[in-house]
Structures are given as C-alpha cells and as structure tokens.
Amino acid sequence: MRLGGEKLTEDNKKNRTLYILCLCQIGAMLIWYNFAAIIPILRAEWSISNDQAGALLSAFQLGYVIAVIFTGWLTDRYGGRLIFALSAFETGLAGLGFVFFAYDYQSALLWRTLAGLGQGGLYIPGIKILSSWYPGKDRGRIIGIFTCSTVFAYAGAYYLASALAVAYSWQTGLFWTTIWAFPSALVVFFFVDEKKTSFGTAALVKVENKSAFTLASKAFWLIITGYIGHMWELYAFWGWLGAYMTYAFTLHGYETSVAIGYGGGIAAACTAMGAISPGLGGWVSDKYGRCLSATTLMLISGCCALLFGWLAEFSLYLLIIVGLIYGFFIVADSAIYKAGLTELVPAYAMGSALGLQSVLGFGITIITPRLFGLIVDHYNWGWAFSFLAIGPFLGGVCMLLLRNHPESWQMASGKR
Fold this sequence. Notes:
The chain is mainly alpha-helical. The chain has a single domain (about 1-415), classed as Growth Hormone, Chain: A (Up-down Bundle), CATH 1.20.1250.20. About 80% of the residues lie in helices and about 0% in strands. The chain has 20 helices and no strands. The protein has helices spanning about 1-30, 35, 40-45, 50-80, 80-100, 105-120, 125-135, 135-165, 170-175, 180-190, 200-205, 220-250, 255-270, 275-290, 290-310, 315-330, 335-345, 350-380, 380-390, 390-405. Helix 5 (about 80-100) packs antiparallel against helix 6 and helix 14 packs across helix 17 (about 335-345).
C-alpha cells in the first residue's frame, strides 16, 4: 500500500507541475501578440508602414533570441523554476513600460525588445522542468500540452487586446494582457518543484549512446533545421494574421472599427485552433514516430500557406474556413522537435541544447515578419503568405532525411 501511495503522490506532483506551468505560461505569454492585435490602430495613430510594423514584431523576436542564448545555460545551472519566475516578472515590467511610455515607432522598438527578452526565459525552462518529471515515451504528449498553453495565450491576446482596444483604448487592451505575468512569476516560484532524481543520472549513464548531441552529428542539425523551417512560417503567420483579417473585412465593405473587432476575433479563433493541435501532434509522434508525423503536418501547413493569402478578395467564408484549418496544422508539429531533441541529448545538457535550438529557430523569426511586411507593401498579401511556404517544405525534407538516419531510432521509443 505504501508503494502505491508513493506512486500516486508522485503522479499528483508531476501532474500538478504540468497544470501550474501551463496556466502560468498563459498568463505570462499573453503579452506576445497583444501588440499584433492593435497593429491596425497604431498604423493609423502613429503613421507607421507595414514594414515598420513588421520591424516591431521582429524586435520582440530579437529580444527573445538574445535571451535564449543565455537562458538555456542558466536553466541548466540554476534550475527552470527561478529562471521562469524572473523572466515572467521582467516581461511584465517591459509590457507596462510599453503601455505607459511608448508613443511612437522608436520608443515602441525599445519596449517590445525588452518584453521579448523576458519571454525568452519561459518556454525552455518549462520544458526542462517537465522533462525532469516525465520519461521520453511521454514527452511528445506532455510537451505538446505545454505548447498548447502558449497558443491559448496567443489567441487570448488577440481576442482580449483587440476587443478592449476597440471598446476603450489600445493602452487598455495591452494593460489587461500584461499584468498577469506578475502572479504567474510568483506562482511558479513558490509552487513548482523541479525533480532531481535518478532519472537525470540514467541519462548521464547513456550519454555515449546519444551521439546526436555532438555538433558534428547530422541528426542533431537535421532536427534543428526542421525546427527552423517550422519557425520560418509560424510566427510571421501569427504576427500578421490579425492585420490580414482586418484588411479582408475592410475590403468587403466593413467600417474600420468593425473590421478591427471582427478581424481580431477571427484571428483569435484561427490561432485558438492550434490550442489543442500540439498536444495531438505530440501524441501522434509518440505513437507513429517524430519524423513522419512532422513531415505530414508541415506538408499540410505549407499547402495552406500557398492558398491562404489569395482568398481575401474572393470570399470571407472560404477565407475563414481555410484560416481555421491553417491555424490548426501550422502549430501541430511544434512539440515534436523539442521532444525529439530531448531524446537525443543527455539530461545535464538538455537546457543548453534546447536553448541552441530556440536561438536558431527564433532567429529566423526576426527576419520573416519584417520580410512579410515588405512583401505586403511592395506586392500583396498572397505573395507574402506564399513566401511562408518555403519553411515547412524545407523542414519536411530535413525530417524525411532524419527519418533515414540511424540516430532517429532514439526518438519516440525507436519509431521514426
């Protein structure tokens, strides 16, 4: 009876850890796309171009990348709980700085970059904490669930910020999607446990079998390049989705304020379609293999990218339907690359490896939102979204190559 009781207690602890981290990540990450929700308002109020709006989206990503250069290593050294809490607190301060002190393009660049710095210390420390509790065979599902919480945050930001901005002011919309970072920091610091058991020791014993950890390994770089292809598309899509939907409603005769409200709401719905897909994608990859699952999902997402940007001129209904499908599949493979990497590296270096993966993956997201805005300014929305298809098609090729690599057998219990 005692052994059963101990097992139940440990199961309760790890499940509680998962629930707390998911809820607190939602609270701390609402800031991510609250700015994207009000782009149409600030374009008019500050007289900024699509290129400049894209630069503000990229500045946030730049801050994130700068942070993850260090947070992976800091997580290995000081633990995920402390880094998550400090990062959430910093991003809350930077978010409030934008609300009260941003008044033009230049000042907005500063505060969005600082907010991105704080965001860089949430996802990777969270994965490190969860990986200490859950074995490899469950990580696709668990990291998928954790990734779902980020999508809830993105969708919530679009919905809340756009609605509050139209009803009151853009400052109100940003304020109420920022302050939740502070209680999130406190809850994680005081109520989350990071397990230190023989699980990590076992990984150390098997380090000689995890050859993909070496920088010369083709498998290591294939899974990272696959992740880069995924990220090429994902954050530019999310960042510009609200503005595109607003444009579509305006094109069909809706007044600007109504178009912003409808556009933000539909963008939130399309984003929210991805709120369960990473968990499902992770579960599928646990069952059928990381590489084949990721390739299939990226192929569907890439096809949606080629179609989506051309639909605004034809039919709002068709646009919304394709947008909902696109929103589901574009993020469904997110957890697969993280879960696969945790199976290829030893536990003591997991934070650093995940950090490197994030630096390179999010490094691309500094570029694509800006290029997207330039393409919209000089061509149209159709070509801008078609440009995003480059990423998933390239990523799919890399994951197919990884599937034929011997080291891929270490992922998802030996299933490719």
